[in-house]
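Reading a protein record of the kind used here takes little practice once its layout is understood. The fold follows as a row of integers, each naming the local backbone shape at the matching residue. With these conventions in mind, the following record can be read line by line:

_____
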Amino acid sequence: MAKSRMKYMLRAWNKELRLPHWSMGNRKHRKACARDFAAASVEGSEPITCQADADDHLAEELTYWGE
């Protein structure tokens, strides 16, 4: 069974939020933020068919995060 866009984006956000510069030490908080961020990322995004697409989409999205 194929994964949904949400699952791919959720995994991409979980991988990103593990990085030390996010300062997300608490696992529950990190997972909750990942769910919220993934839901926002999936809205209106192009089709995501694999994990690499989700990782690329997230990298592009984070490029403009502070603007």
